[in-house]
Amino acid sequence: MSSTQDHVHYMNACFQGANPPLTAAEKQRRYRARRDADPERRAKYLKQENERYREDLESGRKKPIKDVSARERRSRRKKWRETYHRLKDRKALSAELADPELADPVPSISRQRVHGKKRTKKTMTNLRKENKELRAKLAKETKKKESYKKRLQRLKHQGASPQTTARETLDQHSSTGTKKTLLFHKALVDSIKNKYKKAKGEKEKQLIARVVTGNSLLKQYRVQHLAQDALGFSKKRWKAPNPSGLAYQRKRNRRISPDLVNRVRSFFKRDDVSRMTTGKRQTITKNKNKMQKRFLQDSMKNLHLKFLSEEEHVISYSLFCRLRPFWIVHPTLSDRDTCMCKTHENLDFMLQKLQHLKVVNSGNAEALVREIACDTNKIECMYGDCTVCKDLSCPVSEEYSAESKVTFLQWAVVEKEHKNDPLSKSKVTLKQESETTQNELLEKFNDHLQRFKRHLFNIRHQFSHYRALKSQMKAHECLIHIDFSENYLCKYSAEIQAVHFGASHQQACLHTGVLYLSTTPQPISFCTISPSRQKGPAAIWQYMAPVFDYIQKHHPDITTVHFYSDGPCTQYKQRGNFFLFTTELFRRGFCAGTWNFFEASHGKGAPDGVGGALKRTADSLVSKGVDIPDAAVLFSELQKTGSKVQCFFVDEQTVDQAIAKMPQDLPAVPSTMRLHQVVTVAPGEMMYRNVSCICTTMQNLTCECFNPKPFTFKKQNMTSTEPSLLPQPQWQDPEVVGKWCVVRYEGDLYPGIVTDTSETHVEVRCMQKIGQNRYFWPAREDILWYLFEDIVCHIPPPKPVTGRHMEIDKETWAKLELALS
Fold first, then answer.
1. Quick one: which of 175, 157, 178, 158 has its CA closest to 167?
2. Are 341 and 601 in contact (CB under 8 A)?
3. CA distance 442 to 360
4. Does residue 792 contact residue 743 with C-beta atoms inside 8 Å?
5. What is the CA 290 to chain-centroid distance, rounded?
6. How far apart are CA 541 and CA 622, in angstroms?
């Protein structure tokens, strides 16, 4: 009960002459009245309340309305409104009680009654408003109903259904009307039938047929067959979907030859068209079919032209795009290739600049090669030995300005000084801008274009040989495509911080490959896992040992082994691997073999996908709580998964023992970086050639195609008695840039400084000869690219003889003359 009600009851009791006990509310009210009657007490109370409020704000027990949430703000304001109205009603009631003119001191109306009247008034207002809205809606719906009713009535009077019309015509018993109706029907049917027969094209026939076949009334009255017979339309016209409208719909030939589909998809899967990805997350799933991604290496337009030039089938560009497998996609920025070919990239940089300057019309390097070569399929033309096209250069437009300055990007090897040791320098590869004239840029571009012809021919030829070898193998042959996958970082399912950020993780070496056999329709994927991180020739043949055991156990008829790999000089393409290839192969019982190399920077293939699949499986096991701390556990856990990949394990001690037994005085094979095929048919003997020969796919391993050269690993060759020149570096190593060497050109020796390297060539700035062991720097720089076999050796810097002339150290010169005599 409120204080106002207590006060009312108290006043009633007083008027009635009673002396009731004071309630707590009445006592509190009298106390407040006495306190407020004294100004000093009132001021003191207000001051205390103000200080208490300030303390509550400072301590955080209370917050100002601006600092509270929106919901709390609404709640407070609602309470303030209620308090305001309550005080207002209380003041009005007090004023009414204090009015001396009232005969009855008891109030005639209570506060609850006042609120009740207001609530009733508000409710009635809302009801009247709702009643008005409902009446308006009812009137609107009634009007709409009458409208539809009137429309139906008009439709009935305007035209009857075909069935009603036919019944009324027969009921009238008018022979004239019936005859005219039948005559009109027959004339109309014959007119449509003749128009359809005389139509010249599919477009006109389709439009005439859709006028009739798209009519739902024929189906409603079940006269479709009658109309079909009368009009002469085929069943396909009635079964074909009838979209809204009469627009012509072009008929598409959905019947595509399965042979064409297979050819196009096989084309997309080729390693020279799309490259395999190795990432564990580089997968794509469609219809619950999960595949490893492959990235296209050119635009779809260029690939379509390439397909048409190689195949006899004529296929449209749209169909060619539609037949692309879903897992072969265009690479994005996040899928950027970090193993790009330096030869391609530098040539593209120069070509883009020349096209931007409108010096050349084409931006496609392969198209320019076709313009300056007689036949891109002939090795003589692509290697620069053809007398007709060897001196041809890139055609230029009228926009060519020889002396105009231009800047272009190039990947280059530069020296970098160390901050802590200024005297110490290292070689780094950077993308940097070069400034030159259009004339010098065009000369450099033509020089690169000539080398690019050889590079392009090697790429295409090696991939062609690879495909032919897979398709034409005999029962006693096998093809092994191998490559190293990036080492797998072993890990625990849960790790402490010291393990995760420290150097406690071990690595597992993965040597992956794919075995192709003519007797099995599906290739066999395999992987050798080892804790050893060695990747030299001795380690490679130890990783291959269990693979050979598997072949001889399950396929004992295999006598010839064909290898395919990329060509890193520290792994596959070097004298140690050639020696083991010509010895270990026969020690294991095989009769012959070939080792083929893809062109440098273009060796991505199926083994890369094998490594990605195994790493993805291992990571999945770790995420499910399996610890993989080392290579042995990795091998054991992968075996438990039942993977289709054949996994083998080689311990580290076995690899170390093989490395210790490896001969150290093996002779170098000439033109190692240039060769792309090695053939062996006898222990210790081999033939090598610049490109692989197709004859090897037909068991003619000793053919004379592409000028093969013999080489023999004999004991006397391993202890050479020739005078020892200065150490021969690996010429493809960027560390040789800036060092001195000797170049053999037309029988003479020329010293020079190495300015750049590639996979098969070295760029040298040479001096000119003026006498016996006398050289000088020419006024115009003589910079050319030379093959590795034209570089004799590395030498110390020549010594000055006069103010202009220099000579090679006399002791080094004597060794050079003796070696070349």
1. 178
2. yes
3. 10
4. yes
5. 15
6. 31
Under 8 Å between Cβ of 372 and 449: yes
Q: CB under 8 Å to 8, separation ≥6 — which residues? A: 106, 107, 110
Which structure tokens are listed for 639? 């075996």
Determine, yes or no, domain membership for 553. Answer: yes
Among the three residues 56, 76, 94, which one is the final residue of a domain in this structure?
56
Enter the tokens of residue 178.
């019936």
* Phi and psi, residue 589, nearest 5°: 100, 0
Per the structure, the count of domains in the chain is: 8
Q: What is the pLDDT of residues 506-550, one digit of tens each?
A: 889 999 999 999 888 889 999 999 999 898 999 999 999 999 999
Are residues 675 and 555 part of one domain? yes
Strand order in the sheet with 646-649: 646-649, 524-530, 507-517, 477-489, 560-565, 592-597, 677-682, 685-689, 709-712
In a domain, 473, yes or no: no
Phi, psi of 559 (to 5 degrees): -120, -15
Q: What is the pLDDT of residues 749-774, one digit of tens each?
A: 899 999 888 767 788 999 999 888 89
Q: State both tokens at 41.
A: 């007490």
Return the axis-axis angle of helices 224-231 and 175-197, rounded to nearest 10°: 60
- Per the DSSP assignment, residues forming a β-bridge with 514 are 481, 525
Q: Which residue has the tokens 């093959």?
A: 787
Asked if residue 628 has pLDDT above 80, the reply is yes
Residue in the block written with tokens 């000579």: 807
Cβ proximity of 606 and 522 under 8 Å: no
Helix/strand/coil for 167: helix
From the CB of residue 437, how many other CB atoms can be counted at a distance below 10 Å?
14
Both 705 and 594 in one domain: the answer is yes
**CA dihedral sign, ordered 606, 609, 615, 621:** negative
- Give the whole-angstrom CA distance, residue 637 versus residue 529: 12
User: Can you say whether residue 462 is alpha, beta or left, with left for phi > 0 and alpha for psi between -120 and 50 degrees?
Assistant: alpha
Last residue of a domain, which of 14, 30, 56? Answer: 56
DSSP single-letter state for residue 628:
B
CB 493 within 8 A of CB 627: yes
Task: Pick the closest to residue 646 from 547, 760, 509, 781 (CA basis).
Answer: 547
160 is a domain residue? no
CA-CA distance, 577 to 597, in Å (whole number)? 13
Helix (H) or strand (E) holding 479: strand 477-489
Pairing of strands 328-329, 294-296: parallel
Cα–Cα distance measured from residue 446 to residue 435, given in angstroms and rounded to the nearest whole number: 17
Please tell me the predicted confidence (pLDDT) of residue 502: 61
494 and 350 fall within a common domain: no
Q: Do residue 497 and residue 584 come from a single domain?
A: yes
The beta strands (E) that lie in 2-45 are given as none
Between 49-63, 370-384, 521-535, 689-703, the lowest mean confidence (pLDDT) is in 689-703
* Residue found under tokens 């609602």: 78
Instruction: Specify whether the backbone of 90 is left (phi greater than 0), alpha (psi in -120 to 50) or beta.
Output: alpha
pLDDT mean over 620-629: 87
Task: Tell me how far CA of residue 564 lies from CA of 52, 120, 462, 471, in angstroms.
Answer: 90, 96, 10, 15
Cβ(485)–Cβ(510) below 8 Å: yes
